[in-house]
Amino acid sequence: MLRKLKRKGDPTDILLFLIIVFFIAVSLVVVLYANSKVAEIIDTTVLNESDAYSSIHDSFTTINEYTAQRGFTLFFGILIIGIIVSSFLVRVHPVFIFIYIIVLGVTILTSVYLANAYAMMVANEQLATISENYGMMTFIMQNIVKILLGVGALSMIIIFGKIGGGDVSGSNSDL
After folding, report:
1. Range of the domain at 95
2. How many other CB atoms sit within 10 Å of the CB of residue 167?
3. Within a domain: 77
4. C-alpha distances in Å from residue 2, one per residue of 5, 10, 53, 167, 175
5. Is the distance from CB of 91 to CB of 168 less than 8 angstroms?
6. Which phi-psi region, left, alpha or beta, contains residue 163 (left: φ > 0; alpha: ψ -120 to 50)?
7. CA 11 to CA 24: how far, in whole Å?
8. Could you report the per-residue pLDDT of 32-69, keeping only the tens digit for each?
9. Which pLDDT does position 43 carry in this prediction?
């Protein structure tokens, strides 16, 4: 017996998206700062004369220069795709558009404060090198308000712009 999956959308998805992106960006900045300090210590100790030094140095370089930024960007894109896909799978009565607009407004207001907190954190002279080296992460956090507005508006257009005629169970849906 096949059961139908019950997929429910949540207007707070966009707020959860903001919190996750901010947490990951701040965590990566702290981890990359610690990682660069560990790499400096290894460079200045006796370990830099061993045979394993080139492998250790290459690993730190790969993580610090490529993996962190690409991972953040990949995770950011996957979160956006998840919001868009969940918007396609949800049927919501048009009366609830006001709730979505209010939640989007609260999210945008919150994103202003979180973007400023991130900007203040990376303005610290010790962390400034990290923000200079990780342009994509800094670009996303500087423009998070515009990104959230675009993703939220696209999500609402998809959710509330569907052609009617299907029932709630999805057996007679227009998708």
Report:
1. 13-160
2. 9
3. yes
4. 9, 25, 57, 19, 20
5. yes
6. beta
7. 22
8. 888 888 888 877 777 667 777 777 778 878 887 788 88
9. 77
